[in-house]
Amino acid sequence: MTTSPAAPARATLEQACREVGLDPLDAEPLRLAENQIWRLPAQRVIVRIARQGQARTAAREVRVARWLADNNVPAVRLVDVTQPAVITGRPVTFWQELPDHEHGTPADVARLLLTLHSLPAPDINLGYLDPFVRIPERLDAATTLSADDAEWLRQLHQDLVCAWAERPAGLPESAVHGDAWPGNLVRTSQGPLMMDLERFSIGPPEWDLVSTAVRRTTTGAVNAAEYEEFCTTYGHDVTEWAGYPILASARELRMTTYAAQHAASNSEWTGQAQHRVDCLRGRCGPRPWRWKGIM
């Protein structure tokens, strides 16, 4: 008899729900990947089961969510249970289900970031921003790339680490979202709000602003009028900062290695992963490069 791939995931879900007093009977899987997402429709709860070894990250995400709630920042809210629960090494968190939502506009993103960056630094240990987190692991997993391309990306990574350490001064440091793209700063019927809080840290607010700037200058997903509205709403144009090329290159590297990692297990993304490498290596002309989304 074969076992459904969802069976081990459901067992973890059910044990976690029992520990915090929620009923998993009608649970629906939304995504069963490296991180698992389940929905409890009758209770309007979203359950997130993270990878093994991520308990500290999950606990920090819980602290961030509580800090955002205390400061009235529009963001995903926790369910009022003791969390995270840790089941066989996997941390489990419980969130209030969002109303219907869509990707935020550049202006939505700017408003949320301005609110966040204006807050005093929180009295919780967020750690300092690492713009290169998981890059080596992604490159190790990028088996569709040639040895030459992979080595070139590794050298780019090392060059950018050095440039990051010597970047010019910019805006005052603050709490930053860390992954501020429109899928994580969404629009609901109640207004825009933040979600996916696992990359929160202390660092230069320019890192959050670069995400939208790169969508204008690198991928072409944001047009000139949208980017002007973004800058006007936030009150700053990060592309005019001397450190912009360093942070933009780091973001491009993240986007490229993300695609390359996933291309190794899904051939649908092989072409896009190689295209991104080719762009970075100067094989596809000047920016913008019109990269397509992954996942």
Please explain how this structure is put together.
This protein is α+β, with helices and mostly antiparallel strands. The protein folds into two domains: 92 residues, Phosphorylase Kinase, domain 1 (2-Layer Sandwich), CATH 3.30.200.20; 178 residues, Alpha-Beta Complex (Aminoglycoside 3'-phosphotransferase, Chain: A, domain 2), CATH 3.90.1200. 42% of the residues lie in helices and 14% in strands. The chain is built from nine helices and ten strands. The strands form three sheets. A five-stranded antiparallel β-sheet has the order 1-2-3-5-4, sandwiched between helices. It has a three-stranded antiparallel β-sheet with strand order 6-8-9, with helices on one face. Strands 7-10 form a two-stranded antiparallel ribbon. A hairpin with a 2-residue loop joins β4 and β5. It is globular. The two termini are 32 Å apart.
Percentage beta strand: 5-15%
- Number of domains as seen in the coordinates: 2
* Overall pLDDT metric: 94
CATH-derived topology of the largest domain:
Aminoglycoside 3'-phosphotransferase, Chain: A, domain 2
So what's the CATH class of the largest domain? Alpha Beta
Terminal-residue CA separation: 32 Å
CATH superfamily annotation of the largest domain: Aminoglycoside phosphotransferase (APH), C-terminal lobe
> What strand line-up does the widest sheet have?
1-2-3-5-4
* Overall geometric form: globular
Q: Helices and strands, in N-to-C order?
A: HEEEHEEEHHHEEEEHHHH
Instruction: Decide which structural class fits the backbone.
Output: alpha+beta
CA-based gyration radius = 20 Å
CATH architecture level-2 label of the largest domain: Alpha-Beta Complex
Q: What is the percent of helical residues?
A: 40-55%
Task: Describe the main β-sheet briefly.
Answer: 5 strands, antiparallel
Contiguous runs where pLDDT drops below 50 for at least 5 residues: none
Q: Helix count?
A: 9
Q: Would you report the number of β strands? A: 10
